[in-house]
Specification:
Rossmann fold; 12 helices; 2 domains; 5-stranded parallel sheet; elongated; alpha/beta
Length: 249
């Protein structure tokens, strides 16, 4: 199966490697690009650093403040973010399996009494981590270290892939990616064919947005991590065929 990978370039390359290992053919077509933000990092001390993405930790790692932050525990969502934390020099790394809600649960387990956290984050967030933790008496200092900028025009690789939509699927790692993809294909007059191919979504909120936008075949990962997302391709492959794709164009 050919698979459109829409996430930013560095992450897209990792996804492409995983897809090749599963026998799929990745088509890299990032619709978002990561850019740095120069927001100041508040003075500590902090009881822990929170990270919901590897990008946040990579941006934190090149800031001079990292020297005073490495001694604090890191609570990270997923193995990939935890690996980025280890690369940044954090020694005590706790992994929350799932999403931002799982991170909240892990933080509450480790810090039952009110604590102060630093959240190394991006400008676009699907979950209000600070709000959830402040409800339990914790303080969260949020620092936005990067933002994802949407492509202004449809990447040529997407148009080329949709010109022959048989045996094609689309991966959506975030709601922003799904929203940007649909806006770009609509702007290029390819909205109908894009909605007819199968889509794989990292979370139900992303899948729901795709369905609401008219996408006809959407599968949702059983867990909000990439390994589970890639497994949805097996379900898409088992539930369809090239002839079925042609009928829904």
């Amino acid at each position: 199966m050919r698979v459109l990978v829409l996430r930013p370039e560095r992450a897209a390359r990792r996804t492409a490697d995983a897809l090749r290992g599963l026998g799929h053919t990745p088509v890299l077509a990032p619709v978002l690009a990561i850019t740095d933000l120069s927001n100041p990092i508040p003075d500590g001390p902090f009881d822990a650093v929170l990270a919901t993405s590897a990008n946040g930790l990579r941006k934190l790692a090149v800031r001079r403040e990292i020297e005073r932050l490495r001694s604090a525990p890191l609570i990270a969502v997923g193995d990939r973010t935890a690996e980025a934390g280890c690369e940044a020099g954090f020694v005590a790394v706790h992994v929350a399996e799932g999403d931002g809600r799982a991170l909240v649960a892990e933080a509450l387990r480790l810090f039952p009494s009110p604590a102060r956290f630093l959240h190394a984050a991006g400008a676009d967030r699907a979950f209000d981590l600070a709000g959830a933790l402040s409800f339990h008496g914790h303080r969260v200092d949020l620092v936005e270290l990067y933002k994802a900028e949407a492509a202004a025009t449809l990447p040529p690789a997407i148009a080329e892939a949709l010109a022959a939509p048989e045996d094609l699927a689309v991966l959506h790692h975030s709601g922003r990616i799904a929203e940007t993809f649909l806006a770009l294909v609509d702007g290029a007059g390819l909205g109908e064919v894009a909605r007819a191919v199968p889509h794989a979504a990292l979370a139900e909120r992303i899948a729901r947005a795709l369905r609401d936008a008219g996408c006809r075949r959407v599968e949702t990962a059983e867990r909000p991590d990439e390994q589970a997302l890639l497994k949805t391709l097996d379900r898409l492959d088992a539930n369809g065929s090239p002839s079925a794709f042609r009928r829904t164009k």
